[in-house]
Design goal:
It contains five helices and no strands. It is mainly α. The protein is globular.
């Protein structure tokens, strides 16, 4: 869990330093709650493969396949996800709120294990 929190903090820090503030329309993008769900799933996927303690090409291939499966499960392509991530990442306050919800969700999952 410490690795996840460190990762989330790093992501939040990077996005909070990102350029000028703008008024971006969120029309045509995923709702914030959907982004939270996808990011939680991504962190769980990364945590699973990270826990295997293997550092070979198989893990990389399986992780990429896992991402592809995750995108399909959420009805997205990699490009669509990245477009949404860039969109929300350009608004640090919104991205911070999203990442806080991701952290809260992961903490709840960890507490119920």
């Amino acid at each position: 869990m410490r690795k996840i929190c460190t990762y989330l903090f790093t992501v939040i820090l990077l996005f909070s330093c990102g350029g000028k503030k703008s008024e971006i329309s969120h029309e045509g993008f995923l709702p914030e709650d959907k982004m939270v769900t996808i990011l939680v799933d991504m962190h769980l996927l990364e945590g699973y493969y990270g826990s295997l303690n293997r550092h070979d090409d198989t893990v990389v291939v399986n992780t990429i396949a896992g991402y592809d499966s995750l995108y399909a499960r959420h009805g997205l392509t990699k490009e669509e996800f990245e477009k949404n991530l860039d969109h929300y990442g350009s608004e640090p306050e919104i991205m911070l709120r999203i990442m806080e919800k991701v952290t809260d969700s992961l903490n709840v999952l960890e507490a119920t294990r």
